[in-house]
Structure formats: structure tokens, C-alpha cells
Amino acid sequence: MTATTTLPATEQTDALGIHQPRLPKWAPAGIALGAAAVGVGIGTVAGLSSRIQWGLIAALLFVLASYAISATVEGKRQAKDRFATSMVWVAFLLAVIPLASLIWETVSRGIKVLDAYFLTHSMSGVVTIQPGGGVYHAILGTLEQVGIATLISAPIGLLTAIYLVEYGKGKLAKAVTFFVDVMTGIPSIVAGLFILSLWIMMLGFSYSGLAGAMALSILMMPVVVRSTEEMLKLVPNELREASYALGVPKWKTIMKVVLPTSIGGITTGVMLAIARIAGESAPLLLLVFGNPVINGNPFDGAQAGLPLFIYEQWANGNEASYDRAWAAALVLIAFVMILNLVARGIARWKAPQHR
Amino acid sequence: MSTTTDTPVAPPPAPSESTSTGRVGDKVFSGLSRGAGILLLVIMAAIAVFLTVRAINAISENEGNFFTTFEWNANATPPSFGIAVLVFGTIVSSVIAMVIAVPVAVGIALFITHYAPRKLSGPIAYVIDLLAAVPSIVYGLWGALFLVPHLTGFYSWLNDYFGWTGFLEYQGGAPRSLMTVGILLAVMILPIITNVSREVFAQAPKMQEEAALALGATRWEVIRMAVIPFGRSGVISASMLGLGRALGETMAVATVLSPSAVLSAKILDPGGGTFAQNIASAFKEAGSFGRDALIASGLVLFVITLIVNGAARLIIARRKEYSGANA
């Protein structure tokens, strides 16, 4: 009796399209497993040597199978949704593989020669085909170059962002915004060539850490401007208006209200910009030139730099040099990562909601 | 509006003392910030002017045609050099990189903001943030010593099944080719594009998403109707950042590519070159004139990136709806 009354009701709602049949929750996992199994099967049967191919076949199968199964059971809209979901997952997995491999290779190969000796000695007097030597001179050079570049570009970048967000109206602001955008796209090698033609070829200075730092600051400025600009824009206008309503002048409002509110984001932006330029090797190749000996003076003479050191060691083309290159790469990544982590720490510490 | 009043209610008349110091401070501050903006413009102009002067010097003595000559013999006694190979290589490798990286990056960004389990999305975003900071020379080292030997199998497979297309032919040997460069560039620019896209997607108005969900939309429909339209210009500007990096990437290309003065559509085989790679490789042997010649090629690269960025900027300006701010 009850069965006969309920059945037509559900059929009716199904006809209206209200009650859709759904795949069980474990379906994506099941399809993924099946696809992986078939992928491995095809791979072994066809004798494909590369694991990448197995993965690609499995990924393709997964996407197609989940679309087909869902389309027959759940209908087209749900199938599209599942297709999108699986594409998103595939995209994620595709990206994880090379990035994880990059980190793994760098750490596992870099750890071989990385020790206290490596960090505290230069390449002075080391024959490149033999093991030994270190990166002290390169670390010193990089720290100095990046420091000078930050001193040049952080104030200019910050002020420019303030100009654009708080004062900027009219043609000048439009031009600055446009050219900041264009400037973010300047290849590092072009910045290097510019300083080369201005500083070394025209003004006649020699290679130095300072020349490299100037090129780096050209690369850093637009990044600082863009990130600071975004952060300043996120500060609600209500805060500014409240400050103006209390009679606080504009510059004080900026200094005491707008900047403190956004200081976390700004610091993070500047630190990320530093992290970006710390790894730039192209301008160093043109302007700092590389030097196997310790040169602590960034204003005179060729220096070393970590990214440049890696390139030189790679170019030597022998196992001992490759080991040094990987170890230096590990040092550089660690430096950049620490910078990032500190930046985020500051951002969290200075975040306005903690006040 | 008297100067000093003893009104207990402060707001309506602004105390004159603080306004007067404020005005001076305002002038100084706005002057400084305007000056910084102008300085940026001056730097950009200086880059263009200096590169152009050097480039004219080089091109005026060039025996070959700057745009159609394949070889780069800037140090020869009648110097002869051209950028045909470099233009081709730069465009091909960047296009490959963009074709691979942009869809994947948008996918990851959506994964982080809308698909991943909430507990995972935070750490994943954090890790990708960190990966964006990995220096290009490290990618270059990885590309040359890990990626190149691992791509031979994949390329032979491509050759077996798609070799008939002509441009996917592969002779064998270490694939230090434009395709490998493109793949490496894609890996490099992936974190940058992902980061910016993710931030934009995360800012998509929650109310609209929930409204769409309440009307029975599937998750994909929500993304298509509420998230992607909101984030489109953000994705474009993210891609622009990525393309800029791909076009001008020097060290990663210089370590991976085995350059030659041939212009070949067979992108799996070694050969070709890019602007930045050529500058880095040829710089140490270049004399004074050779440097001018390299600067000339750098100017072309500069102009290309200028056009790309300008175009992207126009696209963004046309879609104004993306603005996280009320300024």
C-alpha cells in the first residue's frame, strides 16, 4: 500500500527534474583508481618506457571516464561539473610533479657538499674540476647587492604607490600606472643592458656590485609599486574619511592610518620583491661579472653573486662543479625561502586585527 | 571660522594649528610621492633612449640585414648579425610556455580556492607562493641536469605518433630544444600565474556565488558565472606577468638550450635561440661593438615586451569590473 503511493510521487518529481540521480561519493576515487590501473596496464603492455606517458594516459582516461559515466547517470550539467572538477584536479597533479621534483633534486643533490666549510670559504685557488671551495664570496656579494637594491627601490616604490593611490589623478598618474605595468615586464637582461650602457660604457665605471644593484633595483621598483598599490587600495575609504572628519591632514592620515593598516601586506610585497631579485643572474652576468675571490666592497671591482655562481659552476661542466652548483642552488633557495617566511611572519605579526 | 576657539566640541571647526602644519606636510609629502612617480617615468625613458642610441650605432655598421640575417657575427671584421632566429625562438618558446601554463595555472588557482578540502587549500597556496620565489637559475639547473634527460622518452613517443606533422619530428639525442625550453618556462611561470589568479578568484563576491548555488547551480556553473567573469582581467594580468617572464627569461634558457643559427620548425630538435639567451651567451666574448650589437637585440626584446604589456593593459582597461578597491 505504502509502496504504491510513494512510487508515483518520486517518478513525478523525477519527470520535473527536481530529483536527480547522483553518483555515489566514492565514484571519483573509484574512477581514478580504475584509470590509474588501466594506464599502468597499457603502459606495461605497450612497453612504454616513460612513466610520464603512463601518467598522461591515466589522466586522460580519468577525465573521459568520469565525464561519460556522469553524463549517462546524472545528466549533462552534472557531467560538465565533474569534467571541470577532474580537469582542475589533473591540473593540480600535473603541476605538482615538476615542482616537487625540482625541490627534491635540489635538496638531495645539494646536500652532498653543503657543509660549514662550503659556507665559509671562497673559490679562491680551487681548480674547478676538483671538489672543494665554497660560496662565502657569493653569499656576501648577493647580500650586498640585494641590500643596496632594496635601499634604492623600496622608498621610491612606496612613494610612487602612495602617489598613485592617494594623490594620483589626471594624465601623470595614468602615465605612471601604465609605465609601472610596462616596467614589470622588463626582462632582467634588458635592465642589465641599460645599466651597462649608462654606467659602464658611457660613464666609464668598472664592473661592481653597485652596478648590479642598480639593475636589480630597476626590476624591483615596479614590483614594490604594484604590490603596495594593491595593499593601499584594500584599505577601506571609510577609514580615510573618518580620519579626515577628525581634521587630520592627508599626509598624516596616510602615515598614521593608511600605512599602518596595510603595513603587513606592504612588507610582504617588498620581501617578495627582494626574494625575486635575489635570484636574478642575468644582470649580474653583465654588470657584476663574477669573481672567485672574496670582494667585500660592492662599490669597486667585480664581485660574485649566488645566482651567478650557480651559472658559472654549471658552465664548467664537470661533476665537482655540478655538485657545487646544486649546493649553491640549495643555499639560494633556502635564503629566498627564509626571506619569504620572515616576510609572512611580519605580515601576520603586524596584521591590523591583532591590535 | 576664528583661529582659536574654546569650543568643547572639536569636529566642526578644524583646529587651525594642525591644518597649517598639515598643509606644509601635505605639500612635502605629495611632492615627494609625485617625484617618485616621475622618476619611474624618467628611468623608463632613459632605458629606451640609451638602448636606442647604442642600437643605432650597431645597426649602422651592420653588413647583414638586422631583421632577416640568421647568424650573429657581431665580432667579425665586417660585422654581420640579425635577429630572425632569435625572434622565432623567443616567440615559439613563450607561446609553448603560455599554452601549457595558463590553463594549468587557472586550474590550480580554482583548485585552491574552490575545490581543495579547506584544510589542504591553505598549505597548498602557501607552498605555491613559496615556489614562485624559486630563482630562475635553479630552474635552469634543474632543466639542464634533470628535465633534459627525462624528456627523451616523451619526445620519441611524440615523434612516433605525431612525427608526420613535421614540427614534432625528433632526431634523438639530448633534447636541448625550443620545446624543452617552452616546457621549462611553463613550469617556471606556473606559480606566478597561479598566485595572482588565486588571489583574484578568492576575492570573487561570496554573495553571488552563494546566490548561484541557492538557485541550484553546480559548482562549475558557479565558477563560470560568478568567479571567472570577476577574475578574468586578473587572470589576464597574471598571464601578462608570466609572459613577461617567459619572453625575457635568460638563464634558464641559456642553460637548457643548445643554440644554433638555424630557423627550423622542428621544435623538438636542438637549435634556435632567444634574445635573452643570445645576449647571455655572447656577452663574454663580445667586444665593444659586439656589446652594441647585443644591446640592439635587447632593444628589440624591450619593444616586444612593451607591446605585450601595453596590449594586456588595454584588455584590462576595457574590463574595468575588477577592482578590489573603492579608490
Automatic annotation (TrEMBL), chain A:
Keywords: Cell membrane, Membrane, Phosphate transport, Transmembrane, Transmembrane helix, Transport. GO terms for molecular function: phosphate transmembrane transporter activity. It is a multi-pass membrane protein. InterPro entries: MetI-like, MetI-like_sf, Phosphate_PstA, Phosphate_transprt_permease. The chain crosses the membrane at residues 26-46, 52-71, 83-104, 146-165, 177-201, 207-225, 257-278, 325-347. GO terms for biological process: phosphate ion transmembrane transport. The keyword Methyltransferase does not apply. It is found in: Cell membrane. The keyword Ligase does not apply. Residues 139-343 form the ABC transmembrane type-1 domain. GO terms for cellular component: plasma membrane. Part of the binding-protein-dependent transport system for phosphate; probably responsible for the translocation of the substrate across the membrane. Belongs to the binding-protein-dependent transport system permease family. CysTW subfamily. NCBIfam families: 3a0107s02c. This is Phosphate transport system permease protein PstA. It comes from Streptomyces coryli. The gene is pstA.
TrEMBL record, chain B:
It is found in: Cell membrane. One of its GO terms (molecular function) is phosphate transmembrane transporter activity. GO terms for biological process: phosphate ion transport. The chain crosses the membrane at residues 37-60, 80-112, 124-157, 177-197, 293-316. The keyword Acetylation does not apply. Residues 1-22 are annotated as: Disordered. Keywords: Cell membrane, Membrane, Phosphate transport, Transmembrane, Transmembrane helix, Transport. GO terms for cellular component: plasma membrane. Pfam families: BPD_transp_1. It is a multi-pass membrane protein. Residues 87-312 form the ABC transmembrane type-1 domain. PANTHER family: PHOSPHATE TRANSPORT SYSTEM PERMEASE PROTEIN PST, PHOSPHATE TRANSPORT SYSTEM PERMEASE PROTEIN PSTC. Part of the binding-protein-dependent transport system for phosphate; probably responsible for the translocation of the substrate across the membrane. Belongs to the binding-protein-dependent transport system permease family. CysTW subfamily. This is Phosphate transport system permease protein. The gene is pstC.
